[in-house]
Specification:
May be an activator protein for the gylABX operon. The protein has helices spanning 12-26, 33-40, 44-56, 73-86, 89-103, 145-154, 157-166, 170-173, 179-192, 229-232, 236-256; strands at 60-62, 69-71, 106-113, 116-123, 139-141, 195-197, 205-213, 219-228. It is α+β, with helices and mostly antiparallel strands. The longest helix has 21 residues, at 236-256. It is globular and about 50 Å long.
């Protein structure tokens, strides 16, 4: 065992993986050592040592002008190799492109990773005012943003309640993300069929999301759109929700066929 790493401390691999995920959420701007150490809740010297080792392996690189760290070329090569088993983005990209074209709003595809959603695709529509809450690589806890709410609402009740019991979203996202508040939005999502985020992350930036299911009938991802309140609130909301659900159903069919 590495000196200083007891059984109750995260491993070097886990810490390194955490830093890589944090960097992915901060592209293309990148992040400094101090920012990453703070976000990862580890000492700055430890963060710098891990980042330097990752840099030696090509997994991260550093901008000598700004001092910001970025994902390195080896991450791209690893991701490209993994697409043979995990890539559903061609079908998802077509769905996202169609939603952006038909609605004029920014459209996204997010996937579930543990207790989080990760945005993996974004396409901006023709409407000139855009939301910058979501971008490729950003992560949110389940129940936060419309994609995470759509997935959480359609999970089996036992798993959903287990998550609500262990998640504490209020410190970071406010009382509207307490377990009781989430249960109300979950009920509304299940009744409506799609999730609505009425500007709870950024005031005035609304989102709608619809879950996509795997071959076992479990929600593993979500299509979503974001825009200003005037364009996503009722009465247009029903039309946009219908388009989202149709796209999500079609993507589910493609993901589960064969």
């Amino acid at each position: 065992m590495e000196p200083g790493l007891g059984t109750n401390q995260p491993s070097v691999i886990r810490r390194s993986a955490h830093l890589l995920r944090l960097l992915a959420a901060r592209e293309p701007e990148g992040a400094t050592t101090t920012q990453l150490s703070t976000a990862a809740a580890i000492p700055r010297p430890t963060a710098h040592r891990l980042l330097s080792t990752l840099q030696e392996e090509g997994l991260v690189e550093r901008d000598n002008t700004t001092g910001a760290w970025h994902l390195g070329p080896e991450c791209f090569l690893l991701g490209a190799a993994a697409t043979t088993r995990h890539d559903i983005t061609p079908a998802a990209r077509a769905a996202v492109l169609r939603l952006a074209r038909e609605t004029g709003e920014s459209a996204f595809f997010s996937i579930r990773r543990g207790d989080e959603t990760v945005c993996v695709l974004r396409e901006d529509g023709s409407f000139p005012i855009r939301s910058h809450v979501l971008h490729e690589g950003i992560r949110f806890p389940l129940g936060v943003a419309s994609a995470g709410l759509a997935i959480l609402a359609l999970m089996p009740e036992s798993r959903r309640e287990a998550y609500l019991a262990r998640a504490d979203l209020v410190p970071a996202y406010g009382e509207e993300h307490s377990a009781s508040a989430l249960r109300k939005r979950i009920a509304a999502t299940r009744e409506r069929g799609f999730a609505v985020n009425p500007g709870l992350i950024v005031v005035g930036s609304w989102g709608l999301g619809a879950a996509v299911f795997d071959a076992h009938g479990q929600p593993y991802g979500a299509l979503s759109i974001t825009g200003i309140e005037a364009r996503l609130a009722p009465p247009r909301q029903a039309e946009l929700g219908r388009l989202l659900l149709e796209a999500a159903h079609a993507l589910t069919a493609k993901a589960t066929s064969g």
